[in-house]
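User: structure tokens for Two-component system regulatory protein YycI, please.
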Amino acid sequence: MDWNKTKTIFIIVFSILNVFLYSMYVNSYNEAKKLETLGQINVDDELKASHITIDQLPTDVKKISYISGKTRPFEEADLASYKENQKFVISTSGLILRSALITPYPVKEFNEQSLSAFVASYVPLGEEYKLFSIDNEKRIAIFFQTIQNHTIFYNESAYIKVTWNEDNAITGYEQTAFQNLKTFGEKNTLIGANQAVKTLFEKGYLPEYAHVKSAELGYSTLVPLTETRVLSPTWRIHVELKEKDDTIREADFFVNANAVDGQVIDMQENKESIESN
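Assistant: Done. Predicted tokens:
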């Protein structure tokens, strides 16, 4: 047997096989990209067919990490500089601070400016919180703690609830807080805001004539432990929904920004717990 000739034949055969396998890979990859693009086009067409409108949303693709933090116990020493015109009660666990104003704080109009000014002056660590919602019917305003300008959505360890009376004067507040908030792990590329909207549509959360108004990147609870919380990047999608009687209802949906399949996060239980405390 001519070994050199045999070796040459093997090399040629393996070269042809490699070219064949590579061509199969390229074809498979291109088909997958076509299907992906086709799927996106189909979703866009379906959104249009359902008369769903979308305002301008963030288009930059960010990389951010997970966050961890511990629940903060309140102590009397934390309150020394805030005691004027306030009576404080700290819960048995030490994790909830309640304040009753001796003289209610009058407010001309309940908006972000007036409420944020009150929180900054009267609430410990108030500068770390951002206004999330105002409910004039219930006479409550909800603030959420932030980290690196990102809101921590509906976490029972990171909110302020401000209350007022029928005379439009703030009567007190309730507060919980994290401490030692810090990033950990590698920064991950997140799904975009538009992809989060498409996920909501594909999973049946956006009915006909929905209007997507805004998207905000923040955090929500990933792992709820006793003292330490792990928080995951989360899209908050704010939407106007058209009811059967043609009235408009505003709603928020939350989508895990790290999940390729776009896991929708149910915040209803946390929302009810915070607003009803």
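User: Anything notable?

Assistant: The longest strand covers residues 228-242.
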